[in-house]
Design brief:
The protein is α/β, with parallel strands linked by helices. It contains 15 helices and 23 strands. It folds into three domains: 281 residues, FAD/NAD(P)-binding domain (3-Layer(bba) Sandwich), CATH 3.50.50; 141 residues, FAD/NAD(P)-binding domain (3-Layer(bba) Sandwich); 139 residues, no CATH class. A six-stranded parallel β-sheet has the order 1-6-3-2-10-23, with helices on one face. Strands 11-20-12-15-16 form a five-stranded parallel β-sheet. It has a three-stranded antiparallel β-sheet with strand order 7-8-9. It comes from Streptomyces spectabilis. InterPro entries: FAD/NAD-bd_sf, HpyO/CreE_NAD-binding, L-asp_N-monooxygenase_NS-form.
């Protein structure tokens, strides 16, 4: 599977001299960063230029190929996407936003059209299916091709200039107006507006628990890029993984299949793991003590409209609050729980099952991550329960949304994402509610419906059975560095019979949310230090950039920066769930956000 990354003729070479808006252009925009979210912005700019006859220049500042972001070609194929192939697109259809945009195939249609295949966990090669979770490198190939297609669709009056450089500063152009974007190669670009789509910006490394020495390789604060970050972990070492979500699944794959291990089917079809002998022993740790639930097989039926948490219901709540912030637990959470109960009962009745399967307080228990107390009687009890929980959930996932009332009910937390976003949008939630929403509630949603594909959890079960992996000593285990033993000491806090596990290495197997305060991106740091960009706070919880509904950042003095826009993961906290590639055939917040910014940054 290969694709050319040659720059097409419509992306012009640039001589790095300072340039400024002519004052007559309709479009004078610098796009800082062009991964998937930046590509949404570029597509909207091209479409708007085509439909409104706009002229001007778009400066795209991206050191790598356009569109690719973190999905680079050099990644091993065992690093998979967490979204099915038919739910990913770089193009825009009329269902995503009114009027559509530059048309093109989804990732699935593109891969099928090229006859690409995917390797199953057992090593078999099969043609790409709509529900396949493809290698990230394949998405990178698709995004690079899509970027070329989108740029080629630009009208003659729109110049798209790709600067293979990194932006290091953005400063107001005092005398000319607009902004000056400073590049790391000495170039300076004068533009009217700047759109920051910097993705996962990189952050100051997470400190080791207990203030341990971080220079010895015993603490790995960031597992990416994989597998290189883990090269210092020798075979047979014990490794604690902090986190039970998608990053953890990547790390597990890197030190098992990535080191020569194989999965096979036994005589009854169960997945078994055959170690290579180069694996470490894995200890899985998380605050909740729960594994992430597997994603279910998709439904063959059309999506169901919401019955309780509807757009009208959110508008009603807003009107009752007369412009004030909502209390999420009081105003919204009851509607979420009613929606889940309604879904469970409807699917159970259709399947001839008991419609009352969700007990009172189910959602509260889900958010709290409750584990039955008798399952915490000892480490043995907990480990047994952990494996059974994984297996039971995997069977529900195999039944899919059409066959499992439980999975159909839980999926409401994902299907109602846009309704939930509207509760977060200005005037938003109270400070306490914002802290709860982006803390406990968002974590529960991630654990419940944004988990790994079923194959990953089947592999984890096989690793547990093979003795390669085990859960840590219960929820909220305490981690400390034992200087004398040169190892990590992991102590239970909720098991009735205390237990201690030791590990040679500890990996932060979770991805920190992009943040203004800890960002390593030079532009973000500069804008922050100059008071043009601030983070959003909810009590002691620090969120992403404080931006308006159209994406304009708010400075430290409370003033809106009208020539700047911030889109994507860095805006998490001002809006909800910003770190994804758009899906075809359904309304897309990512594309709509890009369109709002583009409309503000251009004049017809």
């Amino acid at each position: 599977m290969t694709a050319s990354h040659a720059v097409p003729d419509s992306v012009l070479a640039y001589d790095h001299q300072a340039t400024a808006s002519t004052g007559t252009d309709d479009v004078s925009v610098a796009l800082v960063g062009c991964g998937p979210r930046g590509l949404n912005v570029l597509e909207r700019l091209v479409h708007r230029a085509r439909t409104h006859g706009l002229r001007g220049t778009v400066h795209v500042i991206e050191p790598g190929p356009l569109g690719v972001g973190v999905h680079h070609r050099g990644q091993p194929d065992y690093l998979r996407l967490h979204t099915p192939a038919d739910r990913l697109t770089a193009f825009t259809d009329p269902h995503m936003v009114d009027g559509g945009g530059v048309a093109g195939p989804s990732l699935y249609a593109w891969a099928r059209g090229r006859g690409l295949t995917v390797r199953e966990p057992t090593g078999d090669e099969t043609p790409v299916r709509p529900d396949h979770h493809l290698p990230r490198a394949m998405l990178g190939e698709y995004l690079a091709w899509a970027a070329q297609t989108i740029v080629a669709a630009a009208p003659a009056g729109l110049r798209v200039l790709h600067h293979r450089a990194t932006a290091v500063d953005v400063v107001p152009a005092v005398h000319r107006g607009g902004e000056r974007v400073v590049l790391n190669n000495g170039g300076v670009l004068g533009v009217a507006h700047v759109v920051l789509a910097v993705g996962h910006t990189g952050a100051v490394p997470m400190p080791a628990p207990g203030g341990a020495d971080t220079t010895t390789g015993h603490w790995i604060a960031d597992p990416y890029p994989l597998p290189g970050s883990l090269d210092g972990i020798p075979p047979g070492a014990t490794v604690g993984l902090l986190g039970a979500g998608l990053t953890c699944a990547d790390v597990v794959a890197a030190v098992t299949v990535g080191r020569g291990g194989r999965y096979v089917r036994d005589g009854v079809g169960c997945l078994r793991y055959l170690p290579s002998g180069r694996e470490p022993a894995l200890v899985l740790l998380s605050r909740s003590g729960l594994p992430a639930r597997a994603r279910p097989k998709p439904s063959a039926r059309p999506p169901t409209d919401a019955a309780h948490l509807t757009f009208c219901a959110v508008q009603r709540l807003r009107s009752l609050c007369t412009g004030r912030a909502l209390d999420f637990r009081r105003d919204v959470l009851p509607l979420v729980e009613r929606e889940m109960r309604h879904r469970y009962a409807a699917r159970a009745i259709a399947l001839g099952k008991d419609p009352g399967g969700l007990g009172d307080g189910f959602l509260g228990e889900l958010v709290r991550g409750t584990i039955p107390r008798h399952r915490l009687a000892s480490y043995h009890h907990y480990r047994t329960w952990y494996a059974h929980y994984l297996g039971d959930d995997l069977r529900e996932a195999e039944l899919g949304l059409d066959g499992s009332p439980l999975k159909y009910s839980l999926e409401a937390l994902g299907d109602l994402r846009e309704e939930l976003r509207r509760t977060v949008d200005e005037p938003g939630l109270t400070a306490e509610s914002t802290r709860y929403f982006f803390g406990s509630f968002a974590a529960a949603v991630s654990r419940t419906v944004i988990g790994p594909q079923p194959e990953r959890n089947a592999e984890l079960l096989a690793l547990l059975a093979a003795g390669v992996a085990r859960p840590g000593p219960g929820p909220a285990a305490r981690v400390g560095w034992h200087a004398g033993a040169r190892s990590w000491e992991i102590t239970s806090t909720e098991l009735a019979v205390p237990a201690v596990v030791h590990a040679d290495h500890l990996v932060a197997a979770r991805t920190a949310a992009p943040a203004v305060l800890s960002s390593l991106n030079p532009v973000i740091r500069s804008l922050r230090d100059k008071g043009r960009l601030r983070c959003r706070l909810a009590g002691d919880l620090v969120l992403g950039a404080d931006v308006t509904r159209v994406g304009r950042p708010v400075g430290g003095d409370g003033r809106v920066q009208h020539r700047l826009f911030v889109l994507g993961p860095l805006a998490e906290g001002s809006s909800y769930y910003n770190h994804y590639v758009a899906a075809p055939g359904a309304p897309s917040r990512a594309v709509a956000d890009a369109q709002r910014a583009v409309e503000c940054a251009t004049r017809p």
